[in-house]
Design brief:
By secondary structure, this protein is of the alpha/beta class. The protein contains 18 helices and 7 strands.
Length: about 400
């Protein structure tokens, strides 16, 4: 969304959005939720009490979402938007007004009149957000600020507040695709009266530079886990862990995925795929060993589990493994039971791929989503591991006791 401030005749009808706080609160909740899923959003500082004109840097369409998510809904912020783009068609106009409280500002004459129509809303305590560069920066370099925001603030008798946005250029680059990135919004101190457009630009860009350079609080443990996960050792680790669990190891591969997919969400698909491959390979090996009469230790399993698997395999054959993801019986019990029951290896592979695939991939992607949501809380990763391990221990104890 963009604004400039050329002068020209008044628009045919007022187009400034109404200032309902509940609508602003809903928009804030919506965009905070969206940005939480795409990497998180943080805010530093607050707007002053009463109305104000917000001037911010502009490098992405995601800047509007970032500001609506970060600014206080009590100010019912409204966004100045380029009339020739966001109001050029009915569907864009609806999106802009309803999801961004946008109002049109003409870039081909009449822009100053459009801006001055917001003066009454400012006096009533609202925040009007403008991008004085007039358009998104194509390369991250700031453009010159237009004077419309300063004129509007002076006319309404409210302060101009510099706000810096960092991270949206990575989240949604101009002409690029959406990807995961943490977005930060910093609210500066109001600018003194008589500030020039150049001084306003310098204040915003200095604040933006500090915001972008601020290091993200992180956990050394998370960094080490993530480094191993994305290295050449990551996928072999997941494969071997899952293969061992399908034979005898009592700790499910989902426990590993819970640690590594939160530490490195982008590696979730390949780590989940490696864990699935390991489970299938281990299951086939367990089936062949059991068919040959080899007894492999199965710790933390019960006689009742084995009896249930024998009954289920006798009734359903290889399809019995579809119950495994939900009934708490370890995969290794089904694999060994299938070998002793004479289940054909090819049928077993197909059915176990369906059962294990659905569970492993769902768990991996779920933990990846959690990792994205927790991105701004990475410093607590060590505590998360303690909770994960403790939760797993409690869950395993309850399952074993339930099947005892």
């Amino acid at each position: 969304m963009t604004t400039t401030a050329p002068s020209s005749p008044a628009p045919a009808r007022p187009a400034f959005p109404s200032g309902r706080r509940w609508s602003a609160a809903l928009r804030r909740t919506l965009w905070r939720g969206v940005l939480t899923l795409t990497g998180g959003v943080e805010r530093r500082g607050r707007l002053p009490g009463g109305g104000c004109v917000v001037v911010a840097n502009h490098s992405s369409h995601a800047d509007t979402a970032a500001l609506l998510a970060a600014l206080d809904s009590r100010h019912a912020p409204a966004i100045g938007a380029a009339a020739d783009y966001w109001f050029a068609s009915p569907w864009r106009r609806r999106i802009c007004r309803r999801l961004a409280a946008g109002f049109p500002v003409r870039r081909d004459g009449g822009g100053m009149t459009d801006l001055l129509a917001a003066a009454d809303a400012l006096r009533a305590g609202r925040a009007v957000v403008l991008f004085p560069e007039g358009t998104r920066s194509p390369d991250g370099a700031p453009g010159a600020f237009h004077r419309g925001a300063l004129v509007l603030a002076e006319r309404a008798g409210v302060p101009v507040v510099p706000v810096a946005i960092a991270g949206t250029d990575r989240l949604l680059p101009k002409h690029g695709r959406l990807r995961s990135a943490l977005v930060r919004v910093s609210v500066g101190a109001p600018l003194p009266a008589g500030t020039t457009p150049r001084q306003a630009r310098d204040a915003v860009m200095a604040l933006q530079a500090r915001t972008a350079a601020e290091p993200l609080a992180d956990s050394a443990t998370r960094r080490r886990v993530a480094a191993v996960t994305v290295s050449r050792r990551g996928m072999p680790l997941a494969f071997c862990w899952a293969l061992a669990e399908a034979l005898s190891w009592p700790l499910m591969p989902e426990l590993l995925l819970g640690a590594v997919c939160v530490a490195a969400p982008r590696a979730a698909v390949r780590m989940s795929g490696a864990a699935l491959a390991g489970s299938l390979a281990g299951g086939l090996l367990a089936l062949q060993l059991a068919a040959a009469g080899v007894q492999v230790p199965a710790p933390l399993t019960t006689d009742r589990m084995h009896a249930e698997v024998r009954r289920s395999l006798a009734a359903e054959g290889a399809a019995a493994v579809r119950h495994q993801p939900w009934n708490g019986v370890p995969f290794k019990v089904y694999a060994a039971g299938a070998g002793r029951a004479g289940v054909p290896a090819d049928r077993w592979l197909v059915q176990s791929a369906k059962a294990r695939g659905a569970r492993t991939l769902t768990v991996g992607l779920g933990f990846a989503a959690l990792g994205l949501i927790m991105r701004r809380h990475r410093r607590h990763y060590g505590r998360y591991l303690v909770l994960l391990g403790g939760g797993f221990a409690v869950g395993l104890t309850l399952i074993v006791r339930g099947w005892g």
